[in-house]
Amino acid sequence: MRSGSSERTTRETVVRATITLNISGNREIATGQVMLDHLLDQFAFHAGCAVEVTARSLDSIAHHVVEDVALTLGCALSKALDDRCGIARFGSATIAMDDALARAAVDLGGRPYARTDFGLTAQRVEDLDTVMLPHFFRSFASSAGLTVHIDVLHGFDPHHCIEASFKAFAQACCMAWSPGLAMSGALPSTKGLL
Ligand SMILES: [Mn+2]
After folding, report:
1. Ligand 1 mean position to 97 CA, how many Å?
2. For the chain, which residues make up each domain, given as ranges?
3. Alpha carbon distance 126, 8 (integer Å)
4. CA–CA separation, 117 vs 97, rounded Å?
5. Residue 13: strand pairing partners
6. Residue 54 pLDDT more than 90?
7. Does domain 3-177 fall into CATH 3.30.413.10?
8. pTM of the prediction?
9. Distance from the CA of 13 to the center of ligand 1, in angstroms?
């Protein structure tokens, strides 16, 4: 079973994260931010993984919590992927949520890159500043060792646009870390190194 845990303690936050792949287990997420909790819960459910995340802010700055949760969860994911042998490596999904249509493509090959276009004009959704969304995915990509491209193709309700993006990212990740039919347990790279 692929599982990984990570802890990050700074003068700004204390974050703990555990992720177990391909299991419909616990989703215990408490970051102190309701929209972030909601999005991570959607991610865990639709990626088919168990996720535990707790975050405590030491400086009451929301920006630091979002960034550090992304870094810590990404680090836990990298540990869960271990040597990355046998995974499909690539995944993609397009998800509809009422007016919103979001597409995500993922490469779990160890190359950190995130490009996101949420098409949002809203500056804030619930208690989340939307400027934090690209930052979340950049932070997650850097510590998880993944490439992600997210595009909201249509949509006018910002909550739907963001939630559909996390669901698409979740399904793309699930496809990418599931056993690759062509891989037979091998490293998914012709280079011989990820
Ligand atoms: Mn929602």
Report:
1. 10
2. 3-177
3. 26
4. 17
5. 57
6. yes
7. no
8. 0.96
9. 26
